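Thread amino acids onto this structure.
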């Protein structure tokens, strides 16, 4: 990444405002989510040749055969997380680092784990340069991050065939896990809330499409 990557022009700001309005009109109501989306320059998470795609409401390929999620999907998952300032949040699937930056912008302490070495290394370099002080880890998200548990919230940004038990175990009582579930073409966005007595309550929120959450080992 060059210093150049971190310019943010009036044109970019204008495009971002429009994108935020599109996401609002699709039904996102959490003003803190919308504010973060209007603030974080999504084009910083793209290779410079593809900047013009950054402010479309679409997923886009990043390195290692992965994708940066569609802005609406990022907003939808973030809204379900009910982010509060100071929340300690685990993200599984760092990818470009965009989702993690949205959470950081909202005042969360963010821990993010990625199984592709290349993406993890890129994000570890780029995020602090861009001012997003996210803790990035290379590893298998199926295991969560036991050394830093428990978390107020956990967000999985890849399609999971089942709920990894370590993730619910690493959730605080009162905590929320947002996870797209199923190994089919599309996944059902699911929230798991851990009650004070440890009981888990699950709710479904419609279908989305994600790249798969792959097990069981990290990829060099
Ligand atoms: N949140 C990302 C989008 C990520 S796409 C962003 O904002 O750009 C899903 C990511 O999950 C990919 O980068 C993929 O490599 C990663 N992933 C898949 N299986 C994983 C696993 N078991 N542990 C950690 N990361 C995983």
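Threaded sequence (220 positions):
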């Amino acid at each position: 990444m060059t210093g150049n990557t971190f310019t943010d022009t009036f044109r970019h700001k204008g495009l971002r405002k429009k994108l935020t309005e599109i996401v609002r009109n699709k039904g996102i109501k959490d003003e803190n989510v919308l504010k973060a989306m209007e603030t974080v320059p999504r084009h910083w998470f793209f290779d410079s040749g593809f900047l013009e795609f950054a402010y479309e409401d679409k997923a886009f390929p990043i390195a290692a055969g992965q994708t940066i999620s569609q802005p609406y999907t990022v907003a939808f998952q973030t809204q379900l997380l009910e982010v509060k300032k100071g929340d300690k949040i685990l993200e599984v699937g760092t990818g470009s680092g965009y989702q993690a930056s949205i959470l950081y912008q909202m005042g969360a302490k963010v821990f993010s784990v990625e199984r592709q070495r290349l993406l993890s290394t890129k994000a570890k370099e780029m995020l602090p340069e861009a001012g997003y002080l996210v803790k990035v880890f290379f590893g298998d998200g199926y295991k969560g991050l036991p050394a830093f548990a428990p978390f107020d919230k956990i967000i999985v940004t890849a399609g999971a065939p089942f709920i990894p038990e370590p993730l619910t175990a690493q959730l605080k009582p009162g905590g929320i896990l947002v996870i797209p579930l199923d190994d089919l073409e599309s996944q059902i966005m699911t929230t798991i809330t851990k009650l004070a007595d440890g009981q888990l309550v699950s709710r479904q929120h419609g279908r989305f499409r994600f790249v798969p959450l792959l097990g069981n080992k990290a990829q060099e």
